[in-house]
Amino acid sequence: MARARVYVTLKKSVFDPQGKTIHDALLSLGYSGVTDVRQGKFFEVELDGLPAEKARATAEEIARKVLSNPVIESFRVEVEG
């Protein structure tokens, strides 16, 4: 069985209000070294009976078609197993 980890984040050109709020909170708590925060989503997808290359292709297709909005988000896929 393969396990895919999918990380979805807003594209750098898209304003991230939640990340900005977290950043401001961290600064108010004294974390002055934090220069930016970008928030995102994390998914684990288990894929049974697929060879590694097919598991990666399937996970990327799922990320592109279902888990992310390609207009404003980008994604990264890691596959193990």
Task: For the structure shown, list the relevant keywords.
81 residues; 3-stranded antiparallel beta sheet; 2 helices
Fold and architecture overview:
By secondary structure, this protein is an alpha+beta fold. The protein has one domain (2-80): Phosphoribosylformylglycinamidine synthase subunit PurS (Mth169, Chain: A). It is 35% helix and 31% strand. The chain contains two helices and three strands, in the order βαβαβ. It has helices at residues 17-28, 52-67; strands spanning 2-10, 40-47, 73-80. The protein has a three-stranded antiparallel sheet with strand order 2-1-3, covered by helices on one side. The model has no long low-confidence stretch (mean pLDDT 96).
Q: What's the CATH H-level superfamily name?
A: Phosphoribosylformylglycinamidine synthase subunit PurS
CATH architecture: 2-Layer Sandwich
Largest sheet: 3 strands, antiparallel
Strand order of the largest sheet: 2-1-3
User: Low-confidence segments, ≥5 residues, pLDDT <50?
Assistant: none
Strand content: 25-35%
> What is the global morphology?
elongated
Number of separate helices: 2
Structural class estimated from helices and strands: alpha+beta
- H-E order: EHEHE
Any idea of the CATH topology?
Mth169, Chain: A
Mean pLDDT: 96
How many domains, in number, for the residues?
Answer: 1
Radius of gyration, CA atoms, in whole angstroms: 16 Å
The helix content, as a percent range, equals: 25-40%
CATH C-level class is: Alpha Beta
Q: Termini distance?
A: 6 Å
